[in-house]
Design a protein that fits this description.
single chain, 283 residues, alpha/beta, Rossmann fold, Pantoate--beta-alanine Ligase, Chain: A,domain 2, 2 domains, 6-stranded parallel beta sheet, 3-stranded antiparallel beta sheet, binds pantoate
């Protein structure tokens, strides 16, 4: 496994991997602090391509002024040893000045799908994500890139960008990995106290219960209100949103008449958690 921090070294290593002209390359973009959710992406990447590149870059452009950029967990040594065990070919760990030199002036903004939900709660966040992901795609030139469905809006934004900009790669969304009790795996779970971790289980439970109700024909708005009440009762404050959206465009839905996604974001203590599940009108 090679750990690379500058572009000339990355390009040379990628040329070596592709020297037979046929080998495929998968990219798993991450911000580090790796957990089993990331490892599931790496395992799937190994199934789908000959070589796997994992990028680790805590992207300052996707953090707002009041967000946790400095506090974001950084565990380079542990991450590297997990990736080595998985047989990853390249760990791409650019520095901030490699990614964003002083004269960097470009911003990618994906309208529509970026605008509601986390886009409304975190202005500029998805511009930062789209900009860094476009750069990662240009740097690595993968045949396929894999993202977790836990960040469902991020996945929708990336799919829209790839389609709009004619980027020649496949985007794979991989189901959310959960702890045995149902809490979605996230690097941010590390911030929760034991008590908060326990209370946070209300998030997947409220979503599951609301989805079941909607699928049984209970009015969407009534099921959403009940889910918000359940989150508040378990100490989430504030609840940024619990919304039913079109599964592709993420437009809000008030009637379950097509494949949908139920998405939520809420703060438990100092930690903002997100989660989402599919809601199927046919079931
Ligand atoms: O999901 C993440 O970890 C980040 O948003 C990503 C896609 C690596 C871009 O910085």
């Amino acid at each position: 496994m090679q750990t690379l921090r500058d572009l000339p070294a990355l390009r040379t290593a990628l040329q070596q991997l592709r020297r037979d002209g046929r080998s495929s390359v998968a990219l798993v973009p991450t911000m580090g602090a790796l957990h089993d959710g990331h490892m599931a992406l790496v395992e799937e990447a190994k199934r789908r391509a000959d070589h796997v590149v994992v990028s680790i870059f805590v992207n300052p452009k996707q953090f707002g002024p009041n967000e946790d950029l400095d506090a974001y967990p950084r565990r380079e040594a542990k991450d590297s040893s997990m990736l080595l065990d998985q047989g990853v070919d390249i760990v791409w760990m650019p520095t901030v000045s490699v990614m964003y030199p002083d004269d960097f002036a470009t911003n990618i903004s994906v309208s529509g799908v970026s605008e509601g939900l986390d886009g409304a709660a975190r202005p500029g966040h998805f511009d930062g994500v789209a900009t860094v992901v476009a750069k990662l795609f240009n740097q690595v030139r993968p045949d396929i890139a894999l993202f977790g469905e836990k960040d469902f809006q991020q996945l929708a934004v990336i799919r829209r960008m790839v389609a709009d900009l004619d980027m020649d790669l496949e985007i794979a969304g991989i189901p959310t990995q959960r702890d045995v009790d149902g809490l979605a795996l996230s690097s941010r779970n590390a911030y929760l106290t034991d008590e908060e971790r326990h209370a946070a289980l209300a998030l997947p439970r409220a979503l599951g219960e609301a989805a079941r109700q909607m699928e049984k024909g209970i009015a969407v708005d009534a099921a959403l209100a009940k889910a918000i009440g359940m989150l508040t009762a378990h100490g989430f404050d504030p609840v940024d949103y619990v919304t039913l959206c079109d599964a592709i465009t993420l437009e809000p839905m008030h009637c379950l008449d097509r494949p949908a996604r139920l998405l939520a974001a809420a703060r438990m203590g100092k930690t903002r958690l997100i989660d989402n599940i599919a809601v199927d009108p046919a079931s």
